[in-house]
Amino acid sequence: MNEITLYQGLEQFTALLELEENDSIPAEIKQDFELALSSTGHTVLNKLDSTIQFIRAVESNIDLKRAHAQALLNVIKAEQERLNELADRDEKSLNRFKAYLIRLIHVFAPTPKKGAKKLIGRVGELSIQKGSASVEVLDEELIPDEYKTVNLKIPMTTWKYLVRMQPSLDESVEFKFVSVSKTAIKEALKDDSMKIPGAKITIGEEKLKVK
Question: Which residues of 26-44 are buried (b: 16+ CB within 10 A; e: fewer)?
Fold first, then answer.
Protein backbone atom coordinates (compact mmCIF):
# COMPACT_ATOMS: atom_id res chain seq x y z
CA MET A 1 0.00 0.00 0.00
CA ASN A 2 1.35 3.36 -0.99
CA GLU A 3 2.12 5.84 1.79
CA ILE A 4 -0.32 8.72 1.86
CA THR A 5 0.86 12.29 1.41
CA LEU A 6 0.39 15.07 3.96
CA TYR A 7 -2.33 16.53 1.77
CA GLN A 8 -4.19 13.19 1.63
CA GLY A 9 -3.83 12.68 5.37
CA LEU A 10 -5.18 16.12 6.17
CA GLU A 11 -8.03 15.57 3.75
CA GLN A 12 -8.98 12.27 5.40
CA PHE A 13 -8.59 13.67 8.93
CA THR A 14 -10.78 16.67 8.10
CA ALA A 15 -13.46 14.42 6.59
CA LEU A 16 -13.48 12.18 9.69
CA LEU A 17 -13.78 15.19 11.98
CA GLU A 18 -16.73 16.49 9.98
CA LEU A 19 -18.46 13.12 10.36
CA GLU A 20 -17.85 13.17 14.10
CA GLU A 21 -19.19 16.69 14.49
CA ASN A 22 -22.36 15.81 12.56
CA ASP A 23 -23.13 12.84 14.80
CA SER A 24 -23.65 10.79 11.65
CA ILE A 25 -21.58 7.80 12.79
CA PRO A 26 -23.60 4.64 13.43
CA ALA A 27 -23.13 3.23 16.93
CA GLU A 28 -22.01 -0.17 15.63
CA ILE A 29 -18.89 1.36 13.95
CA LYS A 30 -18.21 4.01 16.58
CA GLN A 31 -15.19 2.17 17.95
CA ASP A 32 -13.76 1.47 14.49
CA PHE A 33 -14.31 5.12 13.56
CA GLU A 34 -12.44 6.37 16.62
CA LEU A 35 -9.56 4.03 15.82
CA ALA A 36 -9.48 5.33 12.25
CA LEU A 37 -9.60 8.93 13.48
CA SER A 38 -6.76 8.29 15.94
CA SER A 39 -4.67 6.46 13.33
CA THR A 40 -5.19 9.19 10.75
CA GLY A 41 -4.38 11.85 13.33
CA HIS A 42 -1.09 10.14 14.22
CA THR A 43 -0.26 9.80 10.51
CA VAL A 44 -0.94 13.49 9.93
CA LEU A 45 1.14 14.49 12.97
CA ASN A 46 4.03 12.33 11.78
CA LYS A 47 3.78 13.92 8.32
CA LEU A 48 3.67 17.40 9.85
CA ASP A 49 6.68 16.66 12.06
CA SER A 50 8.60 15.29 9.09
CA THR A 51 7.67 18.35 7.01
CA ILE A 52 8.72 20.77 9.76
CA GLN A 53 12.01 18.93 10.27
CA PHE A 54 12.62 18.95 6.53
CA ILE A 55 12.01 22.70 6.27
CA ARG A 56 14.25 23.39 9.27
CA ALA A 57 17.00 21.21 7.82
CA VAL A 58 16.82 22.90 4.40
CA GLU A 59 16.78 26.40 5.94
CA SER A 60 19.76 25.49 8.11
CA ASN A 61 21.58 24.15 5.06
CA ILE A 62 20.82 27.34 3.15
CA ASP A 63 22.18 29.45 6.02
CA LEU A 64 25.33 27.32 6.11
CA LYS A 65 25.84 27.68 2.36
CA ARG A 66 25.38 31.45 2.54
CA ALA A 67 27.78 31.69 5.48
CA HIS A 68 30.30 29.53 3.59
CA ALA A 69 29.90 31.69 0.49
CA GLN A 70 30.48 34.85 2.54
CA ALA A 71 33.54 33.31 4.17
CA LEU A 72 34.92 32.44 0.73
CA LEU A 73 34.24 35.99 -0.47
CA ASN A 74 36.10 37.36 2.54
CA VAL A 75 39.07 35.08 1.81
CA ILE A 76 39.00 36.02 -1.89
CA LYS A 77 38.79 39.73 -1.03
CA ALA A 78 41.71 39.46 1.37
CA GLU A 79 43.76 37.57 -1.23
CA GLN A 80 42.81 40.12 -3.88
CA GLU A 81 44.00 42.95 -1.65
CA ARG A 82 47.23 41.09 -0.90
CA LEU A 83 47.94 40.44 -4.59
CA ASN A 84 47.09 44.03 -5.50
CA GLU A 85 49.53 45.28 -2.87
CA LEU A 86 52.23 43.00 -4.24
CA ALA A 87 51.47 44.13 -7.80
CA ASP A 88 51.59 47.81 -6.75
CA ARG A 89 54.91 47.24 -5.00
CA ASP A 90 56.35 45.45 -8.05
CA GLU A 91 55.06 48.19 -10.35
CA LYS A 92 56.72 50.92 -8.26
CA SER A 93 60.00 48.99 -8.26
CA LEU A 94 59.79 48.46 -12.03
CA ASN A 95 59.01 52.15 -12.63
CA ARG A 96 62.08 53.14 -10.59
CA PHE A 97 64.19 50.73 -12.64
CA LYS A 98 62.76 52.12 -15.89
CA ALA A 99 63.57 55.68 -14.75
CA TYR A 100 67.15 54.54 -14.11
CA LEU A 101 67.34 53.03 -17.62
CA ILE A 102 66.03 56.25 -19.17
CA ARG A 103 68.89 58.14 -17.53
CA LEU A 104 71.35 55.58 -18.93
CA ILE A 105 69.92 55.97 -22.43
CA HIS A 106 70.23 59.76 -22.22
CA VAL A 107 73.88 59.45 -21.17
CA PHE A 108 75.17 56.53 -23.22
CA ALA A 109 72.94 56.02 -26.28
CA PRO A 110 74.16 57.71 -29.49
CA THR A 111 72.02 60.49 -30.89
CA PRO A 112 70.37 59.23 -34.09
CA LYS A 113 69.77 61.36 -37.15
CA LYS A 114 66.09 60.85 -36.58
CA GLY A 115 63.94 59.07 -34.06
CA ALA A 116 64.55 58.40 -30.39
CA LYS A 117 67.73 57.42 -28.64
CA LYS A 118 67.94 53.69 -28.04
CA LEU A 119 70.07 50.88 -26.70
CA ILE A 120 69.90 47.76 -28.86
CA GLY A 121 70.36 44.30 -27.39
CA ARG A 122 70.21 40.82 -28.88
CA VAL A 123 66.61 40.12 -27.84
CA GLY A 124 65.17 43.60 -28.21
CA GLU A 125 65.83 47.28 -27.73
CA LEU A 126 65.24 50.02 -25.17
CA SER A 127 64.23 53.49 -26.31
CA ILE A 128 62.73 56.64 -24.85
CA GLN A 129 59.11 57.44 -25.61
CA LYS A 130 58.24 61.11 -25.28
CA GLY A 131 55.64 62.02 -22.68
CA SER A 132 52.18 62.75 -24.07
CA ALA A 133 50.72 66.24 -23.95
CA SER A 134 47.75 66.91 -21.67
CA VAL A 135 45.76 69.95 -20.60
CA GLU A 136 46.03 71.23 -17.04
CA VAL A 137 43.22 73.52 -15.94
CA LEU A 138 44.71 76.21 -13.71
CA ASP A 139 41.63 78.37 -13.21
CA GLU A 140 38.28 77.30 -14.65
CA GLU A 141 36.82 80.80 -14.28
CA LEU A 142 39.41 82.24 -16.66
CA ILE A 143 38.78 79.73 -19.46
CA PRO A 144 36.71 81.21 -22.32
CA ASP A 145 33.13 79.98 -22.73
CA GLU A 146 33.78 78.37 -26.13
CA TYR A 147 35.75 75.64 -24.33
CA LYS A 148 33.02 74.90 -21.79
CA THR A 149 29.76 72.97 -21.78
CA VAL A 150 26.93 73.36 -19.28
CA ASN A 151 24.84 70.42 -18.07
CA LEU A 152 21.32 71.51 -17.19
CA LYS A 153 18.58 70.01 -15.03
CA ILE A 154 15.09 71.29 -15.84
CA PRO A 155 11.53 69.98 -15.40
CA MET A 156 10.15 68.03 -18.38
CA THR A 157 7.27 70.49 -18.71
CA THR A 158 9.75 73.35 -18.94
CA TRP A 159 11.83 71.45 -21.51
CA LYS A 160 8.82 70.86 -23.75
CA TYR A 161 7.88 74.49 -23.45
CA LEU A 162 11.43 75.56 -24.38
CA VAL A 163 11.38 73.34 -27.43
CA ARG A 164 8.26 75.15 -28.63
CA MET A 165 8.97 78.71 -27.58
CA GLN A 166 12.70 79.04 -26.74
CA PRO A 167 12.22 81.56 -23.90
CA SER A 168 14.83 82.85 -21.48
CA LEU A 169 16.44 80.16 -19.31
CA ASP A 170 17.42 82.39 -16.40
CA GLU A 171 14.67 81.42 -13.93
CA SER A 172 13.80 77.83 -14.84
CA VAL A 173 17.22 76.22 -15.24
CA GLU A 174 19.26 74.71 -12.40
CA PHE A 175 22.98 74.71 -13.15
CA LYS A 176 24.41 71.35 -12.17
CA PHE A 177 28.04 71.81 -13.16
CA VAL A 178 30.24 73.28 -15.88
CA SER A 179 32.72 71.01 -17.64
CA VAL A 180 35.80 72.15 -19.53
CA SER A 181 36.63 70.53 -22.86
CA LYS A 182 40.28 69.66 -22.51
CA THR A 183 40.19 68.11 -25.98
CA ALA A 184 39.19 71.42 -27.58
CA ILE A 185 41.77 73.32 -25.55
CA LYS A 186 44.51 70.85 -26.48
CA GLU A 187 43.61 71.14 -30.15
CA ALA A 188 43.66 74.95 -29.98
CA LEU A 189 46.99 75.05 -28.14
CA LYS A 190 48.70 73.07 -30.90
CA ASP A 191 49.15 76.54 -32.36
CA ASP A 192 52.13 77.81 -30.34
CA SER A 193 50.91 81.39 -30.69
CA MET A 194 47.57 80.54 -29.10
CA LYS A 195 47.07 81.37 -25.44
CA ILE A 196 44.03 80.28 -23.44
CA PRO A 197 43.56 81.90 -20.02
CA GLY A 198 43.30 79.44 -17.14
CA ALA A 199 44.86 76.47 -18.95
CA LYS A 200 48.19 75.21 -20.19
CA ILE A 201 49.72 72.21 -21.91
CA THR A 202 51.79 69.91 -19.74
CA ILE A 203 54.05 67.18 -21.10
CA GLY A 204 54.03 63.89 -19.25
CA GLU A 205 57.14 62.04 -18.10
CA GLU A 206 59.25 60.14 -20.60
CA LYS A 207 58.55 56.44 -20.75
CA LEU A 208 60.84 53.53 -21.40
CA LYS A 209 59.81 51.63 -24.53
CA VAL A 210 60.80 47.98 -24.78
CA LYS A 211 60.65 46.25 -28.15
Answer: eeeeeeeeeeebeebeebb
User: Which residues does 4 contact at the CB level (< 8 Å), separation at least 6?
Assistant: 12, 43
- For 134, the enclosing helix (H) or strand (E) is strand 133-137
pTM to 2 decimal places: 0.51
How many degrees, rounded to 5, is the angle at CA 14 between CA 8 and CA 17?
140
Residue 183, domain extent: 118-210
Q: What is the mean pLDDT of the chain?
A: 80
More confident residue, 124 or 43: 124
d(CA 106, CA 127): 10
| 8 A C-beta contact, residue 128 and residue 206 | yes
Choosing from 87, 108, 129, the residue where a domain stops is: 108
Query: Does 6 lie in the same domain as 95?
Result: yes
